[in-house]
Amino acid sequence: MELDNTLRTVGLALKAGKLAVGEEAAGDACAARACRLLLLASDAAENTLRRAERFAGQGQCLWMQVPYSKEALGAAVGRAGCAMAAVTDLGLAQSIAGKLAAADGARYGGTAERLAVKAERAARRRKEQRQRDKQQFGKKKSSD
Predict the structure, then answer these.
(1) On the chain, which terminus has fewer CB atoms closer than 10 Å, C or N?
(2) Concatenated DSSP letters of 54-120
(3) Domain residue ranges of the chain, discontinuous segments joined by +
(4) Domain 5-115 class?
(5) Do 74 and 66 touch, CB atoms closer than 8 A?
(6) pLDDT in tens, 95-116
(7) What is the pLDDT of residues 69-94, one digit of tens each?
């Protein structure tokens, strides 16, 4: 089975240790608020869909039903099948959502935009923290 670019990125997330695969692992990532994007296979059962919505609500993360079957998503992560996976890295989540939005903007564009806003906020917070750290280091240095 040929993997497209989006599924390759999902596989890359797994190799980087930034993907929780399976319902239990994805649910745990959401509960720990580590999940940035919850992926759900297109042919996932109705119960799984409800669980994904609940997990995303608990973890305050975004979720999307991807246009891949459990078999295709499973192939990307080295399993026979996978109905749910949680991406725990914001950059990888943004990349996956962006690729899906490029293919189907009407369906995935909103999620991609929301992830872009989250990434922008996170970058701003990191920058502010670096500035605070720099100021704090300067104060310690001058008081010694």
Answers:
(1) C
(2) HHHHHHT-EEEE-SS-HHHHHHHTTSS--SEEEE--HHHHHHHHHHHHHH-HHHHHHHHHHHHHHHH
(3) 5-115
(4) alpha beta
(5) no
(6) 999 999 999 999 999 999 999 9
(7) 999 999 999 999 999 999 999 999 99
